[in-house]
Amino acid sequence: MKEDTFKVYGYRWVMLVVFMFIVAVTQLCWITFASITTDAVKFYGVSDLSIGLLSMIFMIVYIVVSIPASWIIDTYGLRAGVGIGAAFTGIFGLMRGLAASNYTLVLVAQVGIAIGQPFVLNAITTVAARWFPVRERATASGLGSLAMYLGIFLGLALTPILTIHFQIGGMLMAYGIASLVAALVFFVFARERPATPPCPAGMEVRSLAFDGFKQMFRQRNFLLVLAIFFVALGAFNAVTTWIENIIAPRGFSSTQAGTVGGLMIVGGIIGALVIPPISDRIRRRVPFIIVALAGATVGLVGIAYAASYWLLLTASFTLGFFLLSAGPIGFQYGAEVTHPTPEGTSNGLLIMMGQISGIVFIFAMDAFKSPQTGSMTMSLVVIIVLMVLSIVLGALLKEPKIFLTESAKTQEKA
Q1: Which of 81, 85, 244, 284 shows a CA-CA span of 20 to 30 A to 74?
Q2: Is the pLDDT of residue 2 over 60?
Q3: H-type alpha helices, 248-342
Q4: Treating both helix axes as pointing N-terminal to C-terminal, what angle do 137-189 and 103-121 enclose, rounded to 10 degrees?
Q5: Is 251 left (phi over 0), alpha (psi -120 to 50) or beta?
């Protein structure tokens, strides 16, 4: 029986790096004000909540724009869809720098960048599917997710330093220039797809976006992973938002809280580099999802109860390493079990679910904190219980059939 053959192109790595650049800048713009809230309050003469809104608006806009963004990516193509996101990021990122002293205009610019975010983030698995063979797709998705974590880390680490040296206006102008450069680089170097698909004939065929929605919600495995993302991404968003409030009642300082949050992202970066390639090599998704959820749960227990600073740092690294490394594997799993649903549709719905739960968890933790001490431990206990339930849901997942299909039908040409 004759085997199908297909070619993989070296330009896939150029495409991935260009995409990672715009992803990282988009996330940097989102997290810009998180580590300088006090300085921003003084600079703009507004409340803490008003500064928090500059970041929270990204979650709100994502919920509204995500589905249309996925439809555009899946209908009009990768370059057009991500191009829209890149244009919004470049234009409004620069506007934010030019209007840095005016809070209202900065908020408008944040809304503009937030509109562009789903067009970029929802394409992570689309880039992997268009340019990479099946055996490299979790790795490609992992590197795309790594760019998200790098953007967050750079935003948290660089913003205070740039603010000290160049004030808030200079910092925002620097980020505006970076946004414009990232957009231009994407338009110059990005390509829609390689000359021939990086997979067997027929495997690249996808259904229409809205037909894909119908198919997704008939997929038991996708509904399970959707529930898992609701809990896991919600937990991450809530913990990173309230990390100072979570550990302050135990006597830890704001400086220590910043270190704890930063180490969580570092753990995620390392996890995203290590775990997805192993998943690709072993050609399994489910065991890694289960182990990641279990490890993240252990880290979350440490965040909730650790009294020692070093134990708290260990818990933070553990939480980030396992939880954030599970993201790209989960994205790829969702794309594989819903085939032929377009990748942008499944990817966008998973991220949107995390944005919704993030808003719910963030407000719930604030509403139910102890009125006497401000402790959020009871809220964390509830999230830990939900994480344990997610492990149970993970054990019910079935491996996608796409690996078996590739093994039986293909012989890859380098």
Answers
A1: 284
A2: no
A3: 254-282, 286-305, 309-337
A4: 120
A5: left
Q: Name all domains of the chain by residue range, CATH numbers in brackets.
A: 4-413 (1.20.1250.20)
Q: What is the DSSP code string of 32-93?
A: TTGGGHHHHHHHHT--HHHHHHHHHHHHHHHHHHHHHHHHHHHHH-HHHHHHHHHHHHHHHH
Question: Whole-angstrom Cα distance, residue 199 to residue 86?
Answer: 28
Q: Go through 307-335 and write b for each residue having 16 or more CB atoms within 10 A of its CB, e for each that does not.
A: eebeebbbbbbbbbbbbbbbbbbbbbbbb
Contact 106, 138 (CB under 8 A): no
For residue range 355-384, what is the model confidence (pLDDT) as tens digits? 888 888 888 887 888 888 888 899 999 999
Per the structure block, which two tokens stand in for 100? Answer: 């840095």
Tokens at residue 273, please? 């580099």
| Mean local confidence (pLDDT), 191-195 | 86
* 77 has a pLDDT exceeding 80: yes
**CA separation for the pair 360, 375 (Å, rounded):** 18
Q: Residue 260: its pLDDT value, please?
A: 86
Q: What is the dihedral of CA 296, 300, 306, 310, to 10 degrees?
A: 40
**Residue type at 189 in one-letter notation:** F
